[in-house]
Amino acid sequence: MLLTLTLWSDGMPPETLRRPASSRAIPLAVLGDSNSHSYQDHAWFPAATTERGGAWRSRTFQWTEVLDRLRGQELDLGPWVRWGRPGVVAQAREWLGLSAGRAPKKEDYLYNFANSGAACKNLMGGRFRQAPRLVELMNEEGARWLRGVVVIRIGLNDWGGLLDLQASDPAAAELRAATAYCAGEIGAAVTLIHAAHPSTRILLVGIGNEADDPANFDRWQSAAETTNIRTALDGFNAAIRRLAESDPRLAYFDDLAWFQARWGSRSADGKPDYKTVAIGPTLRVANTIGDDPRNAVLADHHPGLAWNALWAQALVARLREEFGLPLTLVGDEELVRFLEPLVLENPPKAPGS
């Protein structure tokens, strides 16, 4: 058993960490959940027509995938690798004093440790812990991370399942506990990263309002419930914002404000009251569900192509503004040129059809 754990390959090509470092590109790593797990991962999502875009999957990209296509010369997410081990194997290797690598196994950028289903508990502990294993990888390339950035975007899986409680009692003890726990785990991840890489910048991303998911439009349709949900959510995000304000190496991305500036929110009495976002002369994206990229949300309730492209655009601006990074802003016309070839009248045919 010991020999098996020692020899169990994680799939990383041996030359990966020996590649020359770009003199310009800024290393970018990610900790998080399914909102940051690359959609083109065919190890985790093996069926080409299921999950993450369905028949549109080949052109349905998550924000890191958009970022790599638009600013891959300026932001270095690492090479695309099929890398990782089962969580139990990674944990057992750590018990033996061996390198765990990344868990679970997935096809993604080298520095993207986000995985579907992750919650705040997965930042620092358990079989799928992300931060310690990312730091272990960063330690192999210490000089590279002197000017690097880590994006931490997590918490929705801890918070989204508590909407009924948020709607009825925004000051509930369970909500306070969830807020304190996530803020504590995110803070611990920040401390761990900075203990080894003190100059690395870290962007903390707040969470959005799950009541804005089109699947929830028929729920919580009252002024009181809408106010309560927003009050509870503001409390959660305020705790993350305070972490970011405590250190000049940290910054905060207000995901809720970003969404509302584009699609809007519910009316004061809790009724859906969303705008349609115009991207260029022809593309219109509504806050609706479906794999067609004219919907903001995919059929499996994850952000769609247009959402992720707009988010990547905003992320570049935020990194440039907060950390003074020498990044080229993603202009609206550039975004249109990127999206237009991906948004056709008909989706591509499914394999074998």
Read across the widest sheet, the strand sequence of neighbours is 2-1-5-6-7
Shape: globular
Main sheet: strands, sense, barrel: 5 strands, parallel
Protein structure class: alpha/beta
CATH top level assignment: Alpha Beta
CATH architecture assignment name: 3-Layer(aba) Sandwich
Number of domains: 1
> Which percent bin holds the helix content?
25-40%
How much of the sequence lies in strands comes to 5-15%
N-to-C SSE series? HEHEEHEHHEHHHEHEHEEEEEHH
Number of helices: 12
Taking the alpha carbons of the first and last residues, their distance comes to 45 Å
Rg over C-alpha atoms, rounded to the nearest angstrom: 20 Å
CATH topology: Rossmann fold
The unreliable regions are 1-5
DSSP strand count: 12
Mean pLDDT, rounded to whole units? Answer: 90
Descriptive account of the structure:
The protein is an alpha/beta fold and 353 residues long. It has one domain: Rossmann fold (3-Layer(aba) Sandwich). Helices cover 37% and strands 14% of the residues. Strands 2-1-5-6-7 form a five-stranded parallel beta sheet. The protein is globular.
Give me some keywords for this one.
Rossmann fold, 12 strands, alpha/beta, single chain, 3-stranded mixed sheet, 5-stranded parallel sheet, disordered N terminus
Secondary-structure map with pairings?
Blueprint: H1 2-7, E1 26-32, H2 63-71, E2 75-76, E3 80-83, H3 87-95, E4 106-109, H4 121-124, H5 131-139, E5 149-153, H6 156-159, H7 163-168, H8 173-196, E6 201-205, H9 223-245, E7 250-253, H10 255-263, E8 264-266, E9 272-274, E10 276-279, E11 283-289, E12 295-297, H11 305-323, H12 332-339
Parallel strand pairs: 1-2, 1-5, 5-6, 6-7, 11-12
Antiparallel strand pairs: 3-4, 8-9, 10-11
Helix pairs in contact: 2-11, 5-8, 8-9
